[in-house]
DNA sequence: CAGAATCCCTACGGATACTG
DNA sequence: CAGTATCCGTAGGGATTCTG
């Protein structure tokens, strides 16, 4: 694989954004969710950011957005068929991330131990 | 998996940074490299950025940094034993990224086709 | 050679207020 | 309910200069 053809950045581009992984996690776990339900699942996100990140994921075909023309409005979000192809990517990243957390924890512990001498 | 335990962000944190994936790619492909060799492989990166990203990767134990105390200085970088565990993560991200590039390309093509009607 | 230091600019993200 | 619109602070990244 030569540098020009490295597509890691493409995958990275989809996932970066402070809230995207957690949004995807909720949609994968909980299935279809309304805007307000997602907001309730993530109390710390602002409406602006939730909207923006959802739009970006939609733009990349990862999620579907269904608008029910009614009052009050109702909009449902879900992982698209295509978006499901992200599952293994997220899985392996989560797996490695978990291991890495442990690795760095041990590192700090051993550093503290030697500092304590 | 509950949101509190989602560690995708941990993995993401290692890889984000405009140059990290490409730096890792070179170290995985070319093996041990000096600072100046990496700079030559990535003409567009500034010394400041190269230094910074290498330091961050070192901080996370992903790469080893070996200093040869001589004049002129010589510093070699390489993927650490632990860092090799990132390989499958990068592989699957590259694979998905490649597929995604094709997916979006086709999407744009079909959009252009319908616009041309 | 391998950096450190400085300055600068933009994009990301947060807070708040408004609307069909 | 599901968004816009606006303002604003910070961090990431780039250009340039200096140094052991």
From TrEMBL, chains A, B:
Keywords: DNA-binding, Transcription, Transcription regulation. The lineage of its organism: Bacteria, Bacillati, Bacillota, Bacilli, Bacillales. Pfam families: HxlR (PF01638). It comes from the Bacteria. This is Winged helix-turn-helix transcriptional regulator. Residues 6-105 form the HTH hxlR-type domain. GO terms for molecular function: DNA binding.
